[in-house]
């Protein structure tokens, strides 16, 4: 089975793809949008994309594309722990430059300041690119902040372990596809994600939309506004709902429609936690 | 009066700083966090930071810092139209590489594909950096996507005018300071921005918080969740409120407190629109 993920090899997305589809043929794409388009073009059976990080928040490229352009759905959610490693071609090496994605550099800042106060920080497009770049320049005094799987992928040594500042760091990934995949992981909850567009931008409309869920005792786990891209101050709203009472949710959604609120289902999925690797 | 903005010169922030404080001594800082720290350290009387763009959404670096670390407030809001120009050292020049911030590259993509289909796109940290870099390499076949003010600042020619895809593109900027500055602009509304932390993450709590405003007829113009950075699924909420009925807002906030909801006032400000330059 063909699976698309955000490459290159050794990225957190790649780690999730391997944990979820150990028998799959995995194809890395350069951007999140390309990963989603791979599924739309039927190049793959499933696409895996990041949706939210516990520190950085939502991944707008994913949510905006699903709302504005795509008619594809999340059929499973994977929660991946994020642990950053400092990688180099050999242990004990002099390090003068450290490469990584800006968020990983920020997460490893305290460790780097203590251990390599003289090192220059250099931004790359992703953590896995940084690891690949360091592996390609063994003669240089370079290191990368990247996931453990990037060390294996590019033959690098872990010279600093779990260097991220925040111990609780997780990323939610969605599997986009036709129907729920058959995973050998244990699901621990079921959720539905909706995008609502209100008939006007009165606060009353949002309040009424939330009422439809609240009085039925339906738990929302997240609410977020994103710009409609029409004018400043116009938004659509992303709601994540605990899907324990599906019949009640159907009623609530029907009620929204009669109020003139339009909705798009972004996903209906089981949530799986991936163990640390 | 000393004013801090997000540099370098020629950035949209610089444009806002010049329009707002035409007599001010303007100091450009390298990052949004540095701009806010300049005010905290009393290096400046006011700091100007971007908070939200009509296409990209909230500027998380600004809002997260104000919520998590700062005890400073917005005392005015400026709304700046965002128009992107294609700049080069001379008209009619061969262009092989186009530099800009990723969002500006995305906004100018259609124009570039039509006019310069062979050009390579290169990412820079900001639009103004791109303009400065192009000005520093007049012998190279380079162009930058940047604001009009960057052309003036770095002596570049506008070779493509208003090339952004979305005609309606605005950015909200906040002026952080002790008290409302005396601006020679016309205010057109008054708003209050609050950050709420709910006693637990039950949806009921958010619904009750919104109720306190809704039944008093207080208009919310925006609601957004941001990660508390504690665990996946724990958020704080940013509410923008129309501040017409300030006494009612005081009652609503008092009611929140009795419900165990804690709040932080991020700003209490008049909103000004900056004319296109």
UniProtKB/TrEMBL annotation, chains A, B:
Protein's UniProt name: Prephenate dehydratase
A Gene Ontology BP annotation from the UniProt entry: L-phenylalanine biosynthetic process
Domain Prephenate dehydratase: residue ranges: 2-178
Keywords: Amino-acid biosynthesis, Aromatic amino acid biosynthesis, Lyase, Phenylalanine biosynthesis
Domain ACT: residue ranges: 194-270
GO molecular function: prephenate dehydratase activity
InterPro entries xrefs: ACT-like_dom_sf, ACT_dom, Preph_deHydtase, Preph_deHydtase_CS
Record CDD domains: ACT_CM-PDT (cd04905), PBP2_Sa-PDT_like (cd13633)
NCBIfam families: PRK11898.1
UniProt EC number: 4.2.1.51
Pathway in which this enzyme or protein is active: Amino-acid biosynthesis; L-phenylalanine biosynthesis; phenylpyruvate from prephenate: step 1/1
Lyase recorded as keyword: yes
One Pfam family from the record: PDT
Superkingdom of this protein's organism: Bacteria
PROSITE patterns: ACT, PREPHENATE_DEHYDR_2, PREPHENATE_DEHYDR_3
Catalysis performed (reactions): prephenate + H(+) = 3-phenylpyruvate + CO2 + H2O
GO cellular component, one term: cytoplasm
Residue runs in coiled coils: none
């Amino acid at each position: 089975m063909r699976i698309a993920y955000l490459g290159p090899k050794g990225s957190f997305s790649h780690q999730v793809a391997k944990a979820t589809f150990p028998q799959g043929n995995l194809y890395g794409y350069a951007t999140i949008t390309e990963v989603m388009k791979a599924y739309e073009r039927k190049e793959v059976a499933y696409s895996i994309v990041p949706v939210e990080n516990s520190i950085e928040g939502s991944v707008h490229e994913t949510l905006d594309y699903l709302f504005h352009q795509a008619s594809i759905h999340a059929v499973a959610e994977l929660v991946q722990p994020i642990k950053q490693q400092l990688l180099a071609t050999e242990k004990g090496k002099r390090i003068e430059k450290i490469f990584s994605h800006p968020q990983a550099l920020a997460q490893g800042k305290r460790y780097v300041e203590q251990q390599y106060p003289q090192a220059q920080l250099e931004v790359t497009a992703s953590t896995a690119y940084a690891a690949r770049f360091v592996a390609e320049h063994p003669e240089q005094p370079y290191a990368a902040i990247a996931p453990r799987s990037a060390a294996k992928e590019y033959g690098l040594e872990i010279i600093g372990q779990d260097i991220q500042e925040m111990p609780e760091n997780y990323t939610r990934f969605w599997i986009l596809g036709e129907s729920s995949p058959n995973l050998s992981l244990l699901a621990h909850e079921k959720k539905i994600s909706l995008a609502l567009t209100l008939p006007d931008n009165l606060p009353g409309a949002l309040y009424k939309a939330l009422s439809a869920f609240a009085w039925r005792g339906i738990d929302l786990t997240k609410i977020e506004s994103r710009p409609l891209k029409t004018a400043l101050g116009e938004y659509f709203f992303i709601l994540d709902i605990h899907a324990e009472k599906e019949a009640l949710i159907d009623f609530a959604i029907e009620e929204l429609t009669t109020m003139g609120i339009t909705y798009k289902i972004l996903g209906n999925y089981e949530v799986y936690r991936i163990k640390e690797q």
